[in-house]
Amino acid sequence: MNRRLLILEFALSSLLRNKSKTLAVTVAFAVVVFLWSSVLMLAQGLKDETRAVLAGTPQLIVQRISGGRQITLPAAYQDTIAAFRGVRNVTPRYWGYYCDPPTSANYTVLGVDAFPGAGLVLVEGRFYGPEDQRRCVIGQGVAATRIVETDDIIPMKQADGGLLAPRVIGIFTTESALLTNDLIVMKSEDVKRLFAIPDGHCTDLVVEVGNTREADTIAQKIQAALPDTRPLAKDRILATYDAVFDWRAGVSGMMVVMATLCFLILAWDKATGLSLDQRRVIGVLKACGWQTSEVLELKFWEGAAVSLVSFLAGLALAWAHLLWFDGALFAGVMKGWSVIRPAFPIQPRLDMFQFLLLLSLAVAPYIAATLIPSWRAAAIDPMTAMRR
Question: Residue 62: what pLDDT?
Fold first, then answer.
């Protein structure tokens, strides 16, 4: 153990003697790790936010499609779907997206008459009751964007040109910022008035299935009975979001390729051979009685020190990039159209598989690029190495 500690101390002192070169390699290495870690953390964070959102998503959602776009559907569809065996309950929903010109943000407006409160935590104020009229509860992102507090009003232009100005009586949050950050909740009648939803129509239908394994079968029955509808199962929605974020992560990753190629060129240059001074140092060590295994152990610790410090520095920078700057370098690509919503924070997340993958791809190749030429230099005669 004492011998290994002495070799480690010698390795660190050797790196410090070449400060400029060590610093250049460490910075280049850390930048590459930072870029890749940022992409992976942002993608994983968005996936986790999506799973938190979909945790409370209905098992089956039925929409009506015309010309490839969603339109309101007749409430009479509710009775048709409820008659299918295996369907426990069918509930109409009223919601839509509201573009707010003063803030250039896009809000989700949801009609809720009986406030569930499940998973929702009031930051301040209260939920509205049956006796309240023209009241709403908003997410923290809406409150920050519109600079409103409880008892303020939020003017919104209706589809018919009129003005709807519900009063804010509560501000809430949830475990997932993506779920409620841009959300405005008000009574269903107010939502119908805001979006001019015709009487006897709704935005979509929520279908509660008795046996979740029968969701796809019931969806096929609905599609056959009501050809203009599009049933959406919860598991397929989640799979679609995962695929979208993986694809966007791949697009963002292309932006990192040039930096990675630069680092690979640096690593290849290191692997193809050692400098004259490095060969002489190895020759001197061999002449002083060092074994080839000890020389390789020295170079292993040098490579491990540089690669581990670079890896940890890049990982810390990526964490700070997402935590304090909301992943500004890649957020526009990863979030897509959601960037026009009120800004919502993404918690940086990296699962164990991704951590080990980054570690293996970052540390192992660099150590190998250090050991291979060192082994070649240590295998030749010490006097020959010192004369070169």
Answer: 92
Tell me the two tokens of residue 139.
């997410």
Cβ 233 vs Cβ 215: under 8 Å = yes
Confidence at residue 376, expressed as pLDDT on a 0 to 100 scale: 62
Domain limits of the chain?
2-52+243-387, 73-202
Bridge partner residues of 364 (DSSP) = none
The pLDDT value recorded for residue 350 is 75
Pairing mode of beta strands 183-186, 135-139: antiparallel
Q: Are 167 and 198 in contact (CB under 8 A)?
A: no
Q: What is the dihedral of CA 263, 325, 344, 124, to 10 degrees?
A: 150
Taking 70 as the pLDDT cut, the residues of the chain under it are 1-3, 10, 49-57, 115-123, 174-179, 237-287, 289, 292, 331-346, 372-388
- How far apart are alpha carbons 60 and 80 in whole angstroms? 15
Backbone dihedral angles phi then psi of residue 129, each to the nearest 5 degrees = -115, 180
Please tell me the pTM assigned to this model. Answer: 0.63
Q: Given this model, what pLDDT does residue 340 score? A: 44
Q: Give me the pLDDT at residue 367, please.
A: 76
Cβ proximity of 205 and 92 under 8 Å = yes
Q: Which residue has 């939020």 as its token pair?
A: 154
The residues pairing with 185 across neighbouring beta strands, listed in sequence order, are: 110, 137
State residue 192's pLDDT score: 93
What percentage of the chain's residues is helix, strand, coil (to nearest 5)?
Answer: 55, 20, 25
Q: Are strands 163-164 and 121-125 parallel, antiparallel or unpaired?
A: unpaired
Within 8 A by CB and 6+ apart from 159, the residues are 194, 195, 196
Q: Which of 257, 250, 109 is nearest to 188 (CA)?
A: 109
φ and ψ of 16, to 5 deg = -70, -25
Q: What distance in Å separates the CA atoms of residue 54 and residue 234, rounded to the nearest whole number?
A: 7
